[in-house]
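Fold this complex.
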Amino acid sequence: MEIKILQTPFDPWQEIQQFQQSSPEMAGKYGASSIFVGTMRDFNEGDDVKGMTLEHYPGMTEKQLSKIITEAMHKWQILDVLVVHRVGDVFPEDPIVLVSVWSSHRGDAFDVSRYIMEALKSKVPFWKKEILQSEAVRWVDKNTDGYKV
Amino acid sequence: MSIKVRYFASLKESVGRSEDELEFVAVISVVDVWRQLNQADDLPENILAAVNMEYVGFDCLVNDGDEVAFFPPVTGG
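Structure:
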């Protein structure tokens, strides 16, 4: 598994390519790659948002992510996982998070991608502070449950 | 015994500090740590706690050298 917490913008497709190139043991073994990319919107809760600052708890963030991925690797048949998450100043259209899962078959890849994303949203210590077009600044108070429509 | 206490995000702003050091003699729990440092009876609503970077309940006991953290619900992803 690989976990990257980045202060600067990243290209998810480049991250995936690099990871695959540096994992020759996976070549020919994976039949399914499930990719989730979370991108910053320019609106939230009915307001126009022009930017965001992401804070995290260095150490605990990595520890909790590693725990979640380890649990997933025990529960499902997957080959590897890459998680990349931004911290610092983020702007609309910037990728915030990448969860990439490789497995032999699609079922496990889809399930693990969802499992990691939902666990990340509820357990991994990151916090978003939004800057609105009106210049008002506010903390996002909670994440929505991704399993509820 | 002494521990390091950390605050994050909106809680860091409302307490006005990012870190504290706390010295203590008798065994104390996470909620005692909050009370001693913040002169308050109860933790603000929805606050979460961690000891050594693992989530804990407020009755969890702390040991010498532990790192205790308080923070609001997480909003990453």
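Chain A touches chain B through 28 residues (CB under 8 Å).
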